Amino acid sequence: MVVRSVDLRSDTVTRPTDAMREAMASAEVDDDILGYDPTARHLEEEMAKMMGKEAALFVPSGTMANLICVMVHCEVRGSEVILGDNSHIHVYENGGISTIGGVHPKTIKNEEDGTMDLEAIEAAIRDPKGSTFYPSTRLICLENTHANSGGRCLSAEYTDSVGEIAKRHGLKLHIDGARLFNASIALGVPVNRLVEAADSVSVCLSKGLGAPVGTVIVGSSGFIEKAKRLRKTLGGGMRQIGVLCAAALVALQENLPKLQFDHKKAKLLAEGLNQMKGIRINVAAVETNMIFMDMEDGSRLTAEKLRKCLTECGILVLPGNSPRIRMVVHHQITTSDVHYTLSCLQQAVQMIQEPSLN
Ligand SMILES: Cc1ncc(COP(=O)(O)O)c(C=O)c1O
Ligand SMILES: C[C@@H](O)[C@H](N)C(=O)O
């Protein structure tokens, strides 16, 4: 029986707040293709400053941001990018770096914590002497936090080590920082320090920060100039985008401080789930706003059965036939929603595990 609606599908599901809608309605705008939109320019300057990079560019999505960054770094035909086999760019972006960008992916196993083994990265770099046969390595991509590892954080020290490898071999480093602010809050490290070694970063405003739309690319002025032209080529040039950027500015101001509470609510949910018979949770791995829930071997529980029970209670998780359930907490999930979710799951687990008692 649906008592309330709790949307744990992703942190991309949030609705704009009243403050965002008011800012959108009153945003100062202009044509961002013929010149520049003043509110977009304000957001881009803010983001470049926060990230410690020369310039920034607003783009419609994280997928387009990553595609643009890979294509700018790998603008020479026959280029190859080293990236994680479980990275968002490789798994969820329709292979765009190859189908549109003409860039060859060289995947390396993502470890459970979202990193890639440093020696494996260096070993994957093509020998320039083999260019008759091989693509040429030009870029390494990291993801912080790492979504498919459960929102795990990459440390500044690890990122610096990858940056040193890139520099040693004349390569560039891109960070898919869709949830970079979550990593910064969880680690207690400023965002500019986390991306110090990166040549480009994509930062989503539409995830935990709760903006309705948008991602910002940061990098050198020369890089952003090329990215801006490519954004237009890909159809991402936009006119009065101050309407969207105004909401993003409110999100930065209002929701950045709230990310710490998202992490606390995620931990509370994980600890509660960990008490339930038949459910397996790695509580220590819940570093930010994501929880991966697995079923114990031999348990009568299945993800399919639990998804059905959750839906009947009005609790939304991503559909699908994965044996694992992902739950993502965001600023529009309350602590009461967490307790409601735990109560519904406790009843479902009992009903499935001990049907004779019901
Ligand atoms: C790690 C990561 N990178 C990039 C993206 C792509 O962002 P968008 O959905 O805005 O294209 C997502 C998900 O949305 C993501 O989780
Ligand atoms: C599904 C995926 O593309 C999205 N980035 C999410 O984490 O919800």
Automatic annotation (TrEMBL):
Tell me its EC number(s), please: 4.1.2.48
Biological or metabolic pathway of the protein? Amino-acid degradation; L-threonine degradation via aldolase pathway; acetaldehyde and glycine from L-threonine: step 1/1
Q: What class of enzyme is it?
A: lyase
Cofactor(s), by name:
pyridoxal 5'-phosphate
Q: Which UniProt keywords apply?
A: Lyase, Pyridoxal phosphate
**What are its GO biological-process terms?**
glycine biosynthetic process; L-threonine catabolic process
Transmembrane regions listed in the UniProt entry: none
Domain of life per record: Eukaryota
Residues modified as N6-(pyridoxal phosphate)lysine are 207
What does it catalyze?
L-allo-threonine = acetaldehyde + glycine; L-threonine = acetaldehyde + glycine
Domain Aromatic amino acid beta-eliminating lyase/threonine aldolase intervals = 7-295
Name the GO cellular-component terms.
cytosol
GO MF assignments: L-allo-threonine aldolase activity
Similarity-based family: Belongs to the threonine aldolase family.
PANTHER family recorded for this chain? AROMATIC AMINO ACID BETA-ELIMINATING LYASE_THREONINE ALDOLASE DOMAIN-CONTAINING PROTEIN (PTHR48097:SF8), L-THREONINE ALDOLASE-RELATED (PTHR48097)
What this protein is reported to do is described as:
Threonine aldolase involved in threonine degradation to glycine. May play a role in the removal of L-allo-threonine.
NCBIfam families assigned to the protein according to its UniProt record, in alphabetical order: GntG_guanitoxin, PRK10534.1
- What's the name of the protein? low-specificity L-threonine aldolase
